Amino acid sequence: MEPTKEQRWVVSSGSLVIRCLHIYSTNTIPFRQNLLKKHSKEHKLLAETLLEYETLTGEEVRDIILKGKKPDRPVVNNEGGGRVRIFSIS
């Protein structure tokens, strides 16, 4: 039995979608890697600042990324990492 025109269209469009997704995913990986390498300094500064201040406003994030400027307010966490709370059970 010969497939209908609609069935052939579904099969061909489905394989086209799969091919497009494959091309998109293989072409964007180097782009993403390059983007991460290109902005690694900003990512590192943002991560360090988040550890120090714990929360940032959108304006503070913009200043960190675009100007390399940390917020003008007291640091919340001086211990160089995330807060750890240790509870003892007696």
Quick description:
With 90 residues, this protein is mostly helical.
Written account of the structure:
The chain contains 3 helices and no strands. α2 runs antiparallel to α3. By secondary structure, it is an all-alpha fold.
How many strand units? 0
Q: Counting H and I runs of at least 4 residues, what is the number of helices?
A: 3
Distance between the termini: 77 Å
Shape: elongated
Structural class: mainly alpha
Main β sheet profile: none
Assembly state? single chain
* Overall pLDDT confidence: 80
Please give the share of residues in helix: 55-70%
Query: What is the beta-strand fraction?
Result: under 5%
Calculate Rg over CA atoms: 25 Å
- Poorly predicted ranges: none
| Strand and helix order | HHH
